[in-house]
Amino acid sequence: MSLISSYLLTTKNLAPFLNSLTTAQAPEVFTQKFLESLEFKSTNDRLFIGLLKGLGFLDESGKPVDRYYKFLDQTQSKKVLADAIREAYGDLFAVQIKANELTATEVKNKLRTLTLGKNSDRVLGFMANTFKALTEYAEWDNLESKKDEKDKIKNTEEKQENTEKETLDEIFDNELDSGNLSKMVNPQLHYNIQIHLPESRNQAVYDVLFKSLKKHLF
Fold first, then answer.
1. Are residues 24 and 123 in the same domain?
2. Could you tell me if 38 and 116 lie in one domain?
């Protein structure tokens, strides 16, 4: 799993910044100069670059990657962001599958546990506010429908397993009622004994042998 450490000091420009990405041509390298060309020139705005890296839009050198280009499709951008958030905040979604529905305070408390108390209360607040601002911009319906579809498939498989089990139980009960199962549990054993008689012309020898067999076998 994962949990990005990038955060914003203020989220008031987050939505306008993300909107500007979808209307601007992707740069070869996302630099501070390019950021300023989008009219985001304050010191706080520089944190957007680190956030894009944390979300998997840019590589470590600042070059746009496949997710960045997919985000440029305005019909898919908010869904692409939702996927990025779920991946970047994987640890948070691992403890709360619908972390995007948590309040900022709830997110902050979850992050306090996940970061093992290493971050100050102020930093945790920034992280929580950044997460909430991202989730509010993103579109989650598609991800939820995928989850619902998986749950539906799982429920169908479980119902099928239960039906098969009930069928086997019914067969078992029928066999028990008919007495067939008793035969299976208590099988009858049959022995096939072969005796090789010695060659002899004396009838008394055979009489003694058959008499002994009768005594010991029957």
1. yes
2. yes
Cβ 6 vs Cβ 17: under 8 Å: no
DSSP code of 99? G
Q: Say if residue 133 is in the same domain as residue 181.
A: no
Q: For the segment 71-100, what is each residue's pLDDT rounded down to a tens digit? A: 999 999 999 999 999 999 999 999 999 999
- Residue 46 DSSP code: G
163-183 tens-digit pLDDT = 666 665 665 566 556 655 555
Based on the domain organization, do 70 and 158 belong to the same domain? no
Domain hosting 193: range is: 144-217
25 and 42 co-located in one domain: yes
Kindly list the distances between the CA atom of residue 101 and the CA atoms of 76, 124, 128, 134, 136, in Å, as whole numbers in the listed order.
21, 18, 12, 12, 9
Query: Based on C-alpha coordinates, what's the Rg of the chain?
Result: 38
Q: Which of 139, 159, 182 is the last residue of a domain?
A: 139
pTM score:
0.66
Confirm whether 102 is domain-assigned: yes
Alpha carbon 120 to chain centroid, angstroms:
32
Considering the domain boundaries, does residue 72 fall inside one? yes
Q: What SS3 state is found at 64?
A: strand
Q: What is the DSSP string of 168-216?
A: HHHHHHHHHHHTHHHHHHSPPP-------PPP-S-HHHHHHHHHHHHHH
